[in-house]
Design a protein that fits this description.
The chain has about 80 residues and is mainly α. It has two domains: about 1-35, no CATH class; about 35-65. About 65% of the residues lie in helices and about 0% in strands. It contains three helices and no strands. The longest helix is centred in the middle third of the chain and has 27 residues, at about 40-65. It is flat and about 50 Å long.
Length: about 80
Amino acid sequence: MQVIVRDNNVEQALRVLKKKMQREGLFREMRARSAYEKPSEKRVREQAEAVRRHRKLARKKLQREGLLPAPKKAARTR
């Protein structure tokens, strides 16, 4: 993973790096590898993640078809 530092702005480069790591799932993987996970716990966790993914896809499909209202967009303040 590579991040370019522009104009010696290290803070911005760190923010970009953290965002890239978040998208790649590195933080979740580091947390998972910090302690041993029993195979039964891993199976339960992966099954719960699959259910969550499936429900999310179904919800998005219903929103696209107009059967569910779209989520409200949060107002950004800067």
